[in-house]
Amino acid sequence: MRVWVGQYRASIYREGDGWTGAISLGRSPTGTRRRLKRKASSEKALMRKLVQAVDDLNRGVRADRYYTIERAVTEFLVQLAKQGRAPSTIQAYRGLARHHLIAQLGHIRVQALTADHVEAWLHDRAGHLSSSSLSIVHGLLKRALRRAQRHDKVSRNVAALVDTPHGLPRRRSQAMNVQQAAALLAEAAHGGHRLGAYPVLGLLTGLRTEELRALQWSEVDLEVGAVYVTRAARHTADTKTPRSRRGLALPQGGLAVLRAHRAKQEAERAAAGGNYHDHGLVFCRPDGGPLTGQNVRDDFRVITAAAGLGTVWVPRELRHTFVSILSDHGVTTETIRDLVGHASTHITETVYRHQIRPLVRGGAEAMERVFGGLLHAA
């Protein structure tokens, strides 16, 4: 059966258990016949596909049976890396895309992807990813398809038609109590750990992990007892905010641990000889090279386990513990703001709201005096 679909003539016929339609597109410059084929289980569904194909042709969308979601996402990430994004960010995006996007949708052609595909995929991943990670992978798909639209590979962005569902609840950062912090400090300072000084300095100063990893000996004054934060382990090498550049006094106990740490580092340098690559870092690998975040996390778990605290803690919680202990002991929010390098007390109160003390209790106490007897009697 021959029909017209827009300005194109199409042939429709039964084939196997379904229907096939072929649109004649004339001949190529070499004289070969050009045809666009679609298949469907019913004649009605086939007509919808043919109409969509013609609409794509009119929009200038080029049919490419090999342009899959995997290609679209991979090409988008290559382009994103050229825009100056942090290598660590690109690496994280690639890992999420590989394991949670390409593995499920990568084989589908961009033109064949539907909103139903995307919705089913997101709800499946919601049982494996946190809400923030789920939002990232959904965003990668939307942006990859938007780029495909710009290059006339697909007519519409079906990923943008679907809302991101909630994922797994993210583990909230915790703070150690004084007894736990004391156990950690004792183990870190006297347990013979190569990077024992790392949690000591982190807990006593509240430095970010990225600030500790980038800290250089030229920024530590062991005579005065101070540490100066001027850089961070970020792709720009700069601190997170201008306010993060700060100088902090060190407790005497922390100075003693840092002196011992430097002596051990000097011994490592002498033993390595020409194989030592000196970056001037306070915390580094045995060959002098910079530490990765994973290096620090692995060593930190060993130390917390040896201190009897288990392996549930992560290095960033040293900063939360610092804020919590100071707040419990009467240090004002304004002072804590300056110590941790926040631009305002609003950030301090928002990010560390579970650690900041004291609570504002005046209203609760007044209402208890007025209504407490009635409620307790009930």
UniProtKB/TrEMBL annotation:
PROSITE patterns: CB (PS51900), TYR_RECOMBINASE (PS51898). InterPro entries: CB (IPR044068), DNA_brk_join_enz (IPR011010), Integrase-like_cat_sf (IPR013762), Integrase_catalytic (IPR002104), Integrase_recombinase_N (IPR010998), Tyrosine_recombinase_XerCD (IPR050090). It holds the Pfam family Phage_integrase. Keywords: DNA recombination, DNA-binding. Residues 67-149 form the Core-binding (CB) domain. PANTHER family: INTA PROTEIN, PHAGE INTEGRASE-RELATED. This is Site-specific integrase. It comes from Actinomadura violacea.
